[in-house]
Structure formats: C-alpha cells, structure tokens
Amino acid sequence: MPADTDKPREECGIFGVYGKNLNVARITYYGLYALQHRGQESAGIAVSDGRKVLLHKDMGLVPEVFSQGTLEQMAGHIAVGHVRYSTTGSSQPINAQPLVFRYARGTLGLAHNGNITNIWDLRSQLTSTGSVFQSTTDSEVIVNLIARYSQNALEEALAKCMIDIKGAYSLLIITEDSLIAVRDPYGFRPLCLGKLDDGYVVASESCALDTVGAQKVRDIKPGEIVIIDDQGIRSMSALSQRKKAHCIFEYIYFARPDSEMDGFHVSRVRREMGRQLAREFPVEVDLVIPVPDSGTTAARGYAEESGKPFEEGLMKNRYIGRTFIQPNQDMRDMGVRLKLNPMRYMLEGKRVLMVDDSLVRGTTSRKIVKMLRDSGVKEVYLCLSSPPVIKSCYYGIDTSNEDELVAAHMSVNEIKSLIGVDGLHYLSIDGLLNIFGKYRENFCTACFDGKYPVEVVKPKESGKFSLE
Questions:
Q1: Which helix (DSSP H) or strand (DSSP E) does residue 372 occupy?
Q2: How far is CA 221 from CA 191, 226, 228, in A?
Q3: pTM (2 decimals)?
Q4: Looking at the structure, do residues 129 and 182 belong to the same domain, yes or no?
Q5: Residues 351-400 pLDDT 10s
Q6: Residue 237: helix, strand or coil by DSSP?
Q7: Is 247 part of the annotated catalytic residue set?
C-alpha cells in the first residue's frame, strides 16, 4: 500500500453504454468521472461502431487521459470504460484496461473489477497449452479462457469461463455489435443496469447512472449474464449460488455515499453505522467530528443518536490530488497537514469524539490525533465504523499484507496507546451486520473474521509467474 495513505484501495470501476442515438464515448467519459474514486492509476475507453472496436487508454486520471479531440474520434454506438487501481498486476501502461483483443469470433474489449483467486493455477494451465500473456493482470486470464471456448457462442463461452474462474469479478465486454455484463455468482463487486433514452447503461455504482442521466433499472444479479444488442436486452443465469457475498467495505468506505447497491442506500447505511457506534460506545464529549470525507456520514449518525453537537473540526484541502511531492523525514507530518487542518478555535479545550471509517496501519490516525492535541483538544476519542481489519482481502481490495494490519497483532488497548487517544472503539461485526436486517448473511466479512467465501489458491513456491 502506498506510503501516503492508510486506507484500503479499491481495484477499479467499470462503465458501459449501448445506444444507437447516443454519444457513447462522451457518456462513458462522464460515467468514468463519476467512478474516479474507485481507481486513479489509469483510464480507458473502447468504442464499437458495429464494424470495428477503437481503444484509447493511458496512465492517469480520466481528464488527463481523454481530450475533446480524442473523444470526438471515438464514434460508435457501444462503449466500455475502466478506471484502475492495481491489486493484481503492477501499475504500468500495459495493464491499463479495457483489454482489446481479436479471437476466432471477432474483436472483444473487456473491463474487469475484482480479483481472480485461482489465477496461478489457471495461468499455469493456459500457458502449458500455448496461451501467451502480454500483461500481468488476472483479467488477461479471462481473455484467454474466452478464446479457448471460442467454438461456442460468446455467452456460452462466458458461462464456461464462470465455471473455471473463482473469486470476484464484475465484467463488461464489448463486441462489434453487443454489450455484455457479467457478475460472479457471489456478487462480490457491485454492478447495476440503467436505462438512458432508447439505450442502456451498466456501471459499478448507481452514482454513475445518475451522472449521465440514466434511470436505474436494477442490480445485475450474482451469476447473471446480461446481453444488450440490436434485438434488445436478454439475460441468462449462468451459475447459481445460494449464498451471496457482497463486499461489506463498499458500504463502509469505497462506494460513493449517493450510490444504491443491492437494495441499500450507502449514505443511509453509513448513518446507521454511526448510530450503532453511539449505542455501543457512549462517552461524554463536547463535540463529534469526522475525518473527512470518509467518516462524515457516520459521524452525523453518532451525533444524532447521542445528542452531541456535530462539527466539521478538520478542514480538508480539496486540491490535494492523488500524488504530491512527499515531505522528507524532517517534515514527515506535512503530508497529513497538507490534507487536513484542525479548526483550533472550535476544538481548543474541548473533549472530542472523532469518527473515521477504518484503521488499517494506524499511521495516519496517530498523526491526526497529534494535530488535535497540538490544537488544544482536551480529550480525544476515536470511533471506527468498521470492525478491526485483521485479514487481507483477495477479492479486489488492497488492504495491505497481514503483517501491516495493526489490528492483526495488537489489542485494542495497545492500538489506543499507539495512536494516542483516550478511548477507542471499533464497530462490532454483529452491530454492522444487523443494519442489513434479514440480509445480514449476504455479505463478505473475511477481512474482519478470516472466513473467506471462496478459496484462495496461493502460488507454488517454485511458481514461474510473477504478477508484479
């Protein structure tokens, strides 16, 4: 995990559109803009005009990769877009998506959100039978599997691929004449369908549908393949899985607050997390403040439930981008101060309860607490709207190695001392899951309890392949 952050990182966001009378490249550009929080390393768009598939992708943010002139050259009626943060495969141009390739049945472009957990076995099998890999992403394994089953119609080939691949995958695939959406049978990563004029839009989050003016129709079901072409829209259930495993961290941190996923509004869930924190950890304080922006909604919920005043005690610099020149050792606190600044007049002499979404390594939290102390805060309490993160995620989220997860090898009291707070409370797993009522069993909580829904196949010690 990069040194300038103490948060988990999402792998990517995907967006697709089909419409004969739509400017699909520009719509996809705005859709990716709405999903930029899901990946800031690279961006790409593939467009089909019914005869050929054009691709443009590069490293950087969406407005850095695409210009007005670039978008104007990408004429067509089908498009797929991708923004990436790498979890499997290093950060380099060759790993940017969509991946566009030719196979026996024509040209395909593929965008993938998630992580394949049996990639090592699949890659070894494919290589031994002549497959060639150009990138270091697990997404290219899916590409090679589709090519292997090219004797079948594409939807049948995809259904066969879904039998082979394990783990998390939401896919968008573009051909010369169709847009196809696929979601893994557990539904780890989100994917939803929208209607825009006479066309359709598919996106990782509903906030992207809202941005382009599309009306959400529904979420793509776990194990479902949706095909959109000039015949309309049709669906097939490729794999059935009784138990779902939606990523709980989408609601805690990753998804935009204005998104709605699998029947739950993200902002409403986060506010209820704060309310539950107040019930679990009542404490006498003068103010409730968030760590912006990820802790804001939960902090409001805590304040509402506890009756304590809510204030924005930490001001965020909105102009800090994904990278900046790192301070040297003598200025090691400058990085946090560039992003956050305490409101001294509001905080001095006060007992403050601070709400954040999670604590991974503890380094940033420690620096924020020190800033609050330096601003004259009398007492500092920290509430986290997630349980302790004690295990790594293998389904498309970068949560650091287990030895870097502070909660994996330190008690709550030890962490409390490490970051310098007067009190520390993590939201309980039961308290978190109870928010979802009768659907509480539909979520993956492996990073909190080590109960992985899908087996993770580790590379053999003598493995030939490196994904870095």
A1: helix 363-374
A2: 8, 9, 15
A3: 0.90
A4: yes
A5: 999 999 999 888 889 999 999 999 999 999 999 999 999 999 989 887 76
A6: strand
A7: no
In 10 A of CB 5, how many CB atoms?
A: 16
| Residues 228 and 340 occupy one common structural domain | no
Distance, first Cα to last Cα, the chain: 14
Answer yes or no: is pLDDT of 188 > 50.
yes
**Residue reference for tokens 């495993």:** 245
Structure tokens at 112: 């993938």
User: How crowded is residue 450: how many other Cβ atoms within 10 Å of its Cβ?
Assistant: 12
Do 93 and 210 lie in a common domain? yes
For residues 347 and 311, membership in a common domain is answered with yes
Secondary-structure percent of the chain, ordered helix, strand, coil, rounded to 5? 30, 25, 40
Query: Which secondary-structure segment (H or E) carries 58?
Result: strand 53-59
**Shared-domain flag, residues 31 and 129:** yes
Q: How many structural domains comprise the chain? A: 2
Q: Which two tokens stand for residue 370?
A: 């020190």
> Which pLDDT tens digit goes with each residue over 156-182?
999 999 999 999 999 999 999 999 999
What pLDDT digit, counting tens, does each position of 82-141 carry? 999 754 445 567 789 999 999 888 999 999 999 999 988 888 888 887 776 776 678 889
State the residue range of the domain holding 166.
9-245
Q: In this predicted model, what pLDDT tens digit does every residue of 292-326 receive, in sequence order? A: 988 999 999 999 999 999 999 999 887 765 444 55
Q: Return the CATH number at 404.
A: 3.40.50.2020
Phi, psi of 29 (to 5 degrees): -55, -50
- Residue 165 forms part of a structural domain: yes
Choosing from 12, 161, 247, 447, the catalytic residue is 12
